[in-house]
Amino acid sequence: MLFKIPIKIDDPEEIDWAYFWEKKVEAKDDIKKDWDKEASRFGKYAVCGGYNNELLSKLKLDKEDTVLDLGCGEGNITIPLSKQVKSVTGVDLSENMLELLNKNAQKENINNIKTMKRDLSKITINDVGAHDIVIASRSINRVLNIQELIANLNEIANKYVFITIYGANNWKIEKEFYESIDKEYPEFPTHRYLFNALLDMGISPNVENLTLTNHREYENLDDFFKRRNWNLNDLTDSEKEEAIEFVKNSLEINENGNLFNKEDIVDWVLIWWKVKD
Question: pTM to 2 decimals?
Fold first, then answer.
């Protein structure tokens, strides 16, 4: 059941943003995604819109830094990071992702990357030790207890924590369809939930929109629904048919034969802060 935030609130200071974050995540039926199955194809769309270069340009790094990369995947951020710092520890729950990362590092003769299979939502300093920098790139969207995770990251990091999270301009196609059938789309919590949850913890974060250039492209309709995390189980059979037809009519075919919608822009927000001494 989708949790709806009350329209009228007497005292905004009493809003428990971590609680509302959790309810948003719980409303998603597919929060336990099988990333082992996604591993072989994830790298194909992980770099969409120049995401990697844009994020890397924002990080405050020193050549002697040790970095913890949470939800490292097959290494699209981990590997370029390793060329700028002393060492990187890549953490992921997917065995297949870590295997790909190690293979990719070996191909480039990189030997300062260590990988660990862990659930990042439960990561502690006892698991990974202290690091100068902690990065969670597009990896915390499915975490339920967000403030517990943040407290752990603050303990691990000596200098900075960097997190990228969904901005408000995602899921336009889904939202338009759900509006057409008078339902609310069960989206993941956006950056405003994290921002306010951090303020509640006494952390004053910096917020930057990543300037990305491209819209998403899909090989076919099946690819669209898989990559958009759009679980149709909350729809009736007739609504499912309507949804598929709606998406068909919303997408065009480009010169490469891929499906796209020019307003389907990748929207990621970087939230970061300096850890207090």
Answer: 0.86
